[in-house]
Amino acid sequence: MTQYEYGGYVKALGTENFIANSGFLQGNVRFVKNKMTYDIMCYGYYMSNNHFGVDQTETFRLPQDDGEIKSFQRESRTETSRYRRRNYETSFRALYSGDKITANSQISIGLDATPHDDNTGEVKYTDNLLGRSYYESIADSKAKYLNYNGYYFFSLPENNSLTASLGYSYSHTNQSSQYSETDIASIYNNAGDNTHKGNIGLNYSQTFGEKHSIMTHIRGLYEHNRTDYSGSVNALDNSTTKFGQIGASYSFADKKVSTSLGFGWNWLATDLNDNKAISDYPYIDASFRFVPDRKNSFGAVFHYSVWPPSSNYKSDNIIQVSPFLWHTGNPLLKSHRSYDIGINYTFIPSNRFNMTVFANSWLVGNRAAFVYEATSEGIVRTIQQPVGKFGHYNYGINASSSFLDGKLYLSGQLAQLYVHNGLPYSINHSCINFYLQALYYLGNFNFAISYNSENATDNYNSMSGIWTKNKDAFVLQAGWSNASWNIRLTAQNLQRWNWRSSYETMRSENYSVNKWSSNASGHAFVQLSVTYTLGFGKKVKQGDDITRQAGASSGILK
Question: What highest taxon heads this organism's lineage (predicted)?
Fold first, then answer.
C-alpha cells in the first residue's frame, strides 16, 4: 500500500431550482500536508425570474392649511416584472494546527449584482385625487467586497490559553433607481458607497482544576462609510463608528450543574459629518443548567447588552421613494438596549424520545423607531428615539422520536409568538404555528415529508411596525448517498401555483400600508441538489469546508 505524506479532496456541489429558475454551483478543494491545511472555494449563484413584484394599498392622512385632514388611498399593482441577480465569490484559507498553536487565515473576494429589478404596473387613487395611471420602476445595484478573517490560538503553561481574532472588510456599492408615473415628475435616486470595517479581539483563559475557568477579553471595532447621493438629491455623508469592549466571565461545570456569568463595559464613539457622540454602557451574560438525572434537565439564559445604531439610519438626507413618501434618518441616534431571557426544560426518558418545553423573550429599551410625519404634500418617514416599549415573546414545545430501530424519525413543534409594539404603533400581534416532519432511512436512500403551517412574524425588527404573514409550506424529499455521491430531490408547494408569498401590514397615525409581495419562495418548485467528492492521497477528514461570507455592507440610507 502506498504511503502518502499528503492528502485531500475535491468537492463539487450544484443545486438547481426548477420553475423558480435559480441555482448555484460551488467547488471546494482541500490539500493537507503535515500540519498545514489549504482550502479553496469558488461559488456562483444566479436567479432569473419574471414574477417578482409588489401589490400594495397605501393610506395617506395629510393635514391641510385649513385644518382639514385629506385622506386618500394609493393602490399600485404590478403587471410585468424582470428580476436578475448574480453572485460570485472565491475564498482561500490556510490553517496551521500544531500542538500548542493554531493559526487560521481566510481571505475572500466577491461580487453581488442585481442588474435588473424592474416593474411596471397600474396606479389608482381614491377620491379622484389623480386619474388612473401607470408606473415604471427600474433599479439596479452592484457590490464588490473583500473580506479577511484570522483566528489564532496559543496554548500556554498551567492550563492558560490566548486567542486572537482579526477581521477586515471593504465594500464598494452602487445603487440606482428610476421611478416614473403618469402626470408625476420622475424620481431618480443614485448612491455610491465605500465602507471599511476592521475588528480585533483578544481572549485570555485560565482553567482551575476540572470545574472552574475564568476568561478575560478585549475587543475593538472600526467602521467608516463614505456615501455619495445624486439624482433627485445630491449629498455626501461621511460616518465613522468606533467601538470598544472589555470584559470577564467565570464558568463552573460538574456532573449536574453548569453555570457561567460574564460582565463588562462597552465604549462607543460615532461621527457623522459634523455630529459627534460618545457613550459607554455595561453588558451582562449569564447561563445556568441543572441536570438532576439522565432524564431531566433545566436551563436558563440571560443577556443584557447595548447595540450601536446602524450607519444606514444616521443620514439626515431626505430621499424620495414614491410620489408621496420620503425617507430620512437621524444623526443623533444613540445605542439601544436589549434584554434576552430564556428558560427551557428537556425530558429524555429513553434514547428513542425527547421533548423540550421553552419560553423566550426579547425586550428593547431606549428604542428607536420609524415615525411617519405628515405634511400637506406627503409623508416623511423619520426615526425618533426614544419611543414606546417593544417586547417579543415566544413559547412552545418540540419533541422527536425514533422507531423501527432508528430508521423512522418523527419530529414536530408547536409554538406561539406574541409581540407588543408600543408607540408610535401601539399594536399587539400574536400567531400560533407548528411544523411536522418524518424521515425514513432505507439503506443508502432517505425520504422526508414535512409541513410548516402558516405563520406571522415581526422579523425581529423593533424599529418597524410591519407584521408579516407567510404562507404554509409542504415539502417532499428523496435522497441517495454513498462515499462519493449525495443526491437529493425536493418538491415544495406543489399544491400552489401563484407567486404571492407574503403579506405585510403596517398601521400608524398618518400612514398605513397593506402589501402583497410576489417572489419564488412560496411558489411550487422542484430542487435537484448533487454533491460529488473525490479524495486523493491519504484519507483526510471532511467537514468545516469554506462557505460564503457575509457579503457586502454599506451606509446607504434604506
Answer: Bacteria
